[in-house]
Specification:
44% helix
């Protein structure tokens, strides 16, 4: 099943476009203004299958955090590989499928979680005309999280891990990963204006969801939770009605960041709730499918290295490849056959539920 996993962005994009064409999908590409690591064209690629006049949408997105793209892209390719039964199911249920490949193509190509401006796309969906959410917890840790040298000096690490021991890992996770808007070189930076990815997605989905009655959206992620386990995290508005709708589609095991049952912290600026609120007449069920890889502190360490490298682009090749790029791949896109099999099996199961669960709830 590893044949669906493409770690190089150019290969993943080519495979997606070819398989989508073979499946008979309508294709659209929204080109990124910058080139990829190897000079290749970058784009948010869109494949549409199913009745054009359908009033129901199933959205499946990959690569919101670029380096996580191989897993999400593999699930999309595996879905397209079953084109004939997929088209039959879409036609029979009156559903239009929208596959969004590479929400953050720059990050995927360059092996980075953030985009070209160090923006975390899934923290960028806030109202920038109002006051952005404050994050005093991050402010207090900012200097320790992104040190002046890599590897970090032992005394600075002792300070950071002392804070973690004092406050508790869960509290520090909340402070670090919730999203912050005042440290452009830091972790989980949400930006100070809409990013390229947000503007592209907003224009696309505002047009796509106009006149639609119902939408289900699965956004594919990696990096949190037990290795190989796909946690189903509610990603719609924080209401009892929205959570019940999601559980009617994906089952009672769905967790929520709002009540603390999820491995994820409560986040600012998530993309799915933004669109649900933006289209108030839409019956929306949103899911983040999050596949675990490494223990949390190892994942955070990889992200710290990424942030440091942003500020030290002249770092020696050995530091870049072994200590940072390799750590990011291990944390978000493991080259592990069992892990890949787990991702495909659970990912396809979730997508089948999204398509086949009764619509109109």
């Amino acid at each position: 099943m590893d044949r669906f996993f493409c770690h190089r962005y150019a290969q993943a994009r080519e495979r997606f476009l070819v398989e989508a064409q073979i499946a008979g999908a309508e294709l659209q590409s929204i080109t990124h203004p910058l080139p990829g690591r190897d000079g290749e064209v970058l784009a948010l690629d869109v494949a549409r299958l199913g009745p054009a006049d359908a009033r129901r949408r199933l959205v499946v997105s990959s690569g919101c955090h670029g380096v996580e793209g191989p897993a999400g892209g593999a699930v999309q390719l595996a879905l397209l590989a079953e084109a004939a039964p997929l088209r039959e199911a879409l036609d029979g249920r009156g559903v239009r499928l929208l596959l969004l490949h590479g929400l953050n193509p720059w990050g995927w190509s360059h092996g980075r979680r953030q985009d070209h401006e160090n923006i975390d796309l899934n923290r960028n969906f806030v109202d920038f005309e109002a006051a952005v959410p404050p994050n005093g917890g991050y402010d207090a840790l900012a200097a320790l999280l992104v040190p002046g040298q890599w590897p970090p000096p032992p005394d600075r690490e002792a300070q950071l891990f002392g804070r973690i021991a004092e406050q508790g890992e869960r509290a520090v996770q909340q402070a670090v990963s919730a999203g912050q808007y005042d440290h452009p070189g830091g972790l989980f930076y949400g930006g100070r204006a809409p990013s390229w990815g947000r503007l592209a997605l907003q224009a696309l989905l505002d047009a796509e969801l106009r006149g639609v009655d119902e939408c289900r959206w699965v956004d594919l992620h990696t990096g949190l939770g037990p290795r190989g386990s796909g946690e189903r995290i509610h990603a719609g508005p924080d209401t009892a009605e929205a959570l019940a709708r999601a559980r009617a589609v994906w089952g009672p095991s769905i967790t929520s960041t709002a009540d603390g049952s999820s491995v994820s912290a409560l986040l600012h600026g998530e993309l799915q709730p933004w669109f649900a609120v933006r289209h108030p007449g839409l019956r929306f069920a949103g899911l983040t499918l999050e596949f675990g890889t490494l223990p949390l502190l190892q994942v955070v360490q990889a992200l710290r290295g990424e942030a440091w490298l942003r500020q030290h682009g002249d770092a020696p090749a050995a530091v870049r490849e072994e200590a940072i790029d390799g750590a990011l791949r291990d944390a978000f896109a493991p080259a592990d056959g069992q892990w890949q099999d787990d991702v495909l099996r659970q990912g396809l199961d979730v997508l089948q539920q999204a398509l086949h669960a009764r619509w109109g709830r």
